[in-house]
Amino acid sequence: MTDTIVRATAEIALGRLDPSPANVRRTGAGQGVEALAASIAAHGLLQSLVVRPKGGGRYEVVAGGRRLAALRLLAKAKRLPKGAAVPCHVLDGDAGEDAAEVSLAENVVRQDMHPADQFEAFAALHRGGEGLGVEEIAARFGVSAHTVRQRLRLAAVSPAIVAAYREGALTLDHVTAFAVTDDREAQERVFAGLAEWQRTPATIRRLLTDALLPTTDRRVALVGLDAYEAAGGRVQRDLFSEDGGGWIADPALLEELVGRRMEAEAEAVRAEGWRWVAVGAEASDALWRCRRIWPARAPLTEAEEARRDALSARYDELAEGHSGTDDDLPEAVAAELDAIEAELDALETREAAWRPEDLALAGALVTLAGDGRLAVTRGLVRPEDEPKPAAPHADGRDDEDGEGLDSPGTGEAEAPAAEEDAGDKAPALSAALVAELRAHRTLGLQAELAGRPDLALRVLLHALAGDAFYGRYGDAVASFPAHPPAFAGMAGLADSPARRRVEEAEAEQRGRLPADRRGLWAWLAGQDEASLLRLLAVLVARVADAGAGDWTAPGDTVAAGVASAAGLDMRRWWSATPASYLARVPKAAILAAVREGAGEDAARRLAGMKKEPMAEAAAAALDGRGWLPAALRVPGAVAANDDAAPPALAAE
Hints:
Structural class: alpha/beta
Number of strands: 12
Number of helices: 26
Radius of gyration: 47 Å
Helix content: 40-55%
Largest sheet: 5 strands, mixed
Strand content: 5-15%
Distance between the termini: 112 Å
């Protein structure tokens, strides 16, 4: 190796210095020159250049090419005179390999500062805001203010985590992940709670920010980040993310601002005159319960109709007057036709509006949409606000035999069992018996529907369309989804012929279905229409309810119409026995049933009996006669005292 001796240090004018081809740094030689120039401007040239004479009073810089470039940049910016004296070490000798060796030695043997030392040094300069400011530090070291803030954020990370970084247990990416929060306790808790293999930057960020509200939240979009900060809110930013994201540090303030915005919108909606206006997520949870109505276009007034007719007549007149010409329409005629069309369109396409009765019935809901916009849903009718249907009979009784129309299961006590005069007027039946009879009627209707898929389909569509487009209190036979009608406390229903028929139909269909629900869709997809309709019939039948209405009263109910279409004849599903009816009604009602079903002579023979033997004798007299109480009669069915035997139980 050739000895290289530094003979002297001299100050040489900047204009006499040239870069040397012997400098070994080739890649990235021009990177960071601006930052280096800023540092030299702030702190001076901390390390002298190494030069060698090249003749003519000029020198080439064999070590310190980036410093030379930075000095020239300062001179170009007029921040340094071109003739400024630059401290240099002058080499003795002119061998090319000696200059290259010096350049190599300077670049190889030096060791860059550890990043932890760098950001702690930045923090020492800043001293928590009492030292140099962020912008001043940035100017002195030729970096951006954002870079300085990043270094200061890293310096604020828990010393235990920085120590692990210095020891090589963590990387800089790990440290930047911990820096998403300035809560050192949280940093240390996550650091201690994660196994080494779990300490990925993504996991660290997720655990430290899961409980925080991101600035991308829809509530922030509604209020606006600027408005939140103007109100005193602080944003905890991730200085190391590409999108500059962050988290809301004062969620309570944000909620307050959101509440103000939503309440202001709600006040504007209330001014429209709605029955009610609800606000927020909790209110929207009940949205599924509401029926939706829509605004309608008001009909044309008489004056508007007259104007429309006049315009149409004029249009036809102009069109007919020029229909025979091959030339283009005269400009004036074409213009008039266009004007007429525009006015007619305006009359026909007027904006829909809410009617006063809509506003009095329905309400509106103010919620926050997913994109941060306020969404107003108008025309919502709550179930409790639906117009209630008028009762079919004000006195709550059937017209024909005096049976009460009380709701099933009221548990009203039976009439006293005292011996009544057979000639007395038949009293009302007990509420319990009425409820049971109507339950039998429902089971009979279900049994018929189970074998009528075509009718069941119509029942289904009637219920779905009625609920969706009309009102929740509309007359319907079934509701979806629903459980079968409850018949709690009604003895004898489980073993009734109709109940057995429904259970058989259900068991048959269930046996065809896959055992696992996950296979149901694939099974349905593979069935033909007839199979699907059979299944539909059973599913509709099991939730059908014949209702409490009087089928014998004028104005048939929907249930009565369905029963008639199904060919329901309750003689197939019910018969009068002491347990089902006769022993549970007054003697006058027993005699009335026998008189109607078996004739006056049969009733006269029973008139002097006690109630229990009377009920047994009445059952024998009515056996095979097909007598039905009014609650079980279907409009258009065979007369109650018809001597024809009831039809046999269907064996579909």
